[in-house]
Structures are given as C-alpha cells and as structure tokens.
Design goal:
By secondary structure, the chain is α/β, with parallel strands linked by helices. It is 36% helix and 22% strand. It binds N-(iminomethyl)-L-glutamic acid and fe (iii) ion.
C-alpha cells in the first residue's frame, strides 16, 4: 500500500465527465493498494484508515493517469529522413509515395529487417515513451503486407507486451496500402487478408483490432467494408484511418460498421460529423501528422461541441509523424485544434482508453482504476501544457509499481 500525498493538482479524468472537465482536485492525495487506486480525493478528506500508509511526497506537483497513446505504427524498419528534406523542398506526401517512397519504402525496410532487430528498436522506443509518462500504447502492423511479415510485426508486439511495462494493444493494418506485388490484382490482396491473415490472427490471438487506410492511393470505402465484415465475423474490433488527406466518406463508414474509433479526420465534412454524433465511435486526432505534413488539423472544436469524444494520439511512424512525444501532441491539440488543456488531457487518458475499449480499467484515477500514475514536474495542468519542456515526467507507476524515477 502506498499513499501519494501533497499532490498540487490531481487530474482524475473520470470517463463519465464531459471532455472539458478532467476532474481536477487541488491539494489532493491518492492511495494505491495492490496495483489499484484504492482512494483519491482532497488530502483534507483522507480517511483515517489510510493515514499511516507509507507516503510519497509529490511536492505540490501535478498527478495524472498514465498517458495512453491510442494510435501508433510502432514497429518498422529503417527511417525516412531523406523524405523530410524532399517535403521541405515542396514535394507532397502523395507525390513521394507515387515515386516509390512513403509507406512502400518502409514496407521494403521492414521486410528486410529481422524480428530481432525490429524488436530491439521498438523496445527502445517504448522505453522513451514510458519515460514521457505513456503507460499504454496501441500499435499497428501494416509495414509487412504479406503473410510472413504482417505476422512478424504482430508477434513482436506480443513479445514486447510481455517483456516490458507498457501495455500494448495490437491492431492488424494489412490494408495499409496494396503492396507492389499486388498492384495489378487488388482483389487477390484483399482475398489474402480475408481468407488467410484474418483467420490466422484470430486463431493465434495476435490482434484485437482491424484497421484500414481509406484514401486515394490506398483502399476504397467499398474494399474496407468487405474487409471489416470479415474481420468482425472473426471477432476483431474495427478502427479506421479516415478522411486524412481528402473527404472520402471514412467517418460515415466508421459509424456504419460500428468502429471503436475513426482516426485522423482532418478532412471530415458535415455529413461525417453528423454520422459520428451518437455513434459511439471515438474521433482520434493526430496533430503531429498535421504538423509534419503541413496539413490541416482535425476540427476538434466542432466535434467536441457536437458531442463526439476526441482522443489525442501521436500516429508515431517513420513518415507522416516521426515523433512519439504524446505531451507534444497534446500541446499542439491546444494550440492548433483549439482544445483546452483539460480536453487534451482527457483526450490522452479517458477518451484514449475508450478508443481502445479499456475505459473501465485505465485512463482515470478514480477508486477502482488500475494504478497507472504519472507525477509531472509542474504545479498544474495548465502550467504543464503551456511551459513546454522536453520531458516534465518525474515518476511513473504501472499497476502500482514504480517503473520510472528521474
Ligand atoms: O497514419 N495514413 C497512413 N498511414 C500513416 C503513415 C504511414 C507512413 O507514412 O509510413 C499515417 O499517417
Ligand atoms: Fe496512422
């Protein structure tokens, strides 16, 4: 049992709160018992039974739930620093893809890399993410695009989930792009995904979600619909890369198929917003991708004001978002998506938990939640997201055990 006392500001982030209300409590305390939050509230209300518990002095700092990065492409071979320079010189993301760069070049590098190399690289990145206060990460395949290499990526996630403290949530993104060897026969590639890969993934429990990139140059809404029907039959839940570079009806498709989340949505239109309202689908905003691509941002204000939950994630990948800095994404959500600091924090905790169907277990610091807890070197949430430092995270607890102390 451990008591965290002298918390300057505690963000409890209850999932039932509206997004603008992160459940902030000044001068708070929190009790951890067997990996679970046993009690949290104003320190002056601490029940007497906990008064003698071993105490950690939080020195007036901010305490938040462990951050949840609910959209990443964690495992990939190589990097694409050369494309960074091309984009700065004016080439678009899609122009680079059309000449063999982009996702296809990472597919090549990922196929060439051994499982061991990829595992070590992803493990190191997870260490950095944990040090920023990120305790749960959704991670997609999508750089293998054949049987051997899609399974290789998903297997790496399974190994890493067991090996280190960050909880991983795996998503099958075989429908990222049509790989080069199938460009003349897209149907055959979809058949491979539906008839071979999805049943195998289901049999071996290798992923919880099925995702697809619906965009010109990737997959049509009709193709994704067919894939999702097969995935749902095999017990996979649905996520969707939707309306990222153009309005392609992705948000409406997400609502139609009962997707847990629709991600990107930079080009969502009014019909898409109406479709998401009341659908239960979480909108996942990825402001780092907008920053790096010089693209528009998801219209968070319109979505939140219409009652759609908006999560904030990094989209970490070697092309459109080569940064895994979730607090930076939260700051950008404030500056470029007009989200308040409380909305951004809810976006990276309770709303992100909903985007991975875990909102009853993580993403909040109410009694009964898993004790994934971060102490931030700042007196308040506003101060943390306004006074940006490379890493303000001081201590991290996962399931109640201390895993980072700086
Ligand atoms: O979410 N949009 C598709 N996929 C990724 C980019 C992947 C890449 O460029 O390698 C994204 O932005
Ligand atoms: Fe993505």
């Amino acid at each position: 049992m451990r008591l965290l006392r002298n918390i300057g500001e505690l963000a409890t982030c209850p999932p039932e709160n509206p997004q603008h209300d992160a459940g902030l409590i000044r001068k708070a305390a929190l009790v951890i018992e067997e990996g679970i939050v046993a009690w949290s509230g104003p320190e002056s209300d601490l029940p007497t039974e906990f008064e003698k518990t071993d105490a950690t002095d939080c020195q007036g700092n901010l305490v938040i739930p462990g951050l949840i990065d609910c959209h990443t492409h964690l495992c990939f071979g190589g990097w694409r620093g050369d494309e960074f320079e091309m984009r700065l010189a004016g080439a678009s993301y899609q122009e680079i893809a059309a000449v063999g760069g982009g996702i296809a070049s990472t597919v090549k590098a990922t196929r060439e890399a051994s499982a061991d190399q990829l595992t070590r690289k992803a493990a190191r990145i997870l260490q950095h993410m944990l040090a920023l206060g990120v305790t749960t990460v959704e991670c997609k395949s999508g750089y293998g695009l054949d049987e051997e290499n899609e399974l290789k990526q998903l297997e790496i996630y399974r190994v890493l989930d067991a090996q280190q403290p960050v909880e991983l949530v795996s998503t099958f993104l075989g429908a990222h792009i049509v790989p080069p060897e199938y460009t003349e026969d897209r149907e055959a590639y979809l058949d491979l995904l539906i008839d071979v890969l999805i049943p195998r993934i289901n049999r071996d429990g290798l992923a919880e979600y099925c995702d697809a990139f619906v965009e010109a140059g990737a997959f049509t809404a009709e193709e994704a619909r067919r894939l999702f029907e097969a995935a749902k039959r095999q017990g996979l839940k649905i996520k969707l890369h939707a309306d990222q570079l153009s309005s392609g009806g992705g948000a409406s498709l997400a609502a139609e198929v009962g997707a847990v989340s629709a991600e990107h949505l930079e080009y969502i239109d009014e019909d898409g917003i109406s479709a998401l309202v009341g659908s239960g689908t979480v909108a996942v905003s990825l402001p780092l991708a907008s920053l790096y691509l010089g693209e528009r941002y998801l219209p968070a204000r319109r979505l939140i004001d219409a009652g759609v939950p908006v999560a904030v994630a990094t989209d970490f990948n070697p092309g459109s978002a080569p940064s895994f800095h979730l607090p930076l994404a939260m700051m950008l959500a404030c500056l470029n998506q007009q989200m308040t600091p409380q909305e951004a924090l809810m976006g990276a905790t309770s709303r992100a938990a909903r985007a991975i169907d875990r909102e009853q277990r993580i993403g909040s610091l109410h009694a009964g939640y898993q004790a994934d807890i971060v102490i931030i070197d700042a007196p308040s949430l506003n101060h943390w997201l306004y006074h940006f430092t490379p890493n303000a995270c001081r201590r991290v607890f996962k399931n109640g055990a201390e895993v980072v102390l700086t």
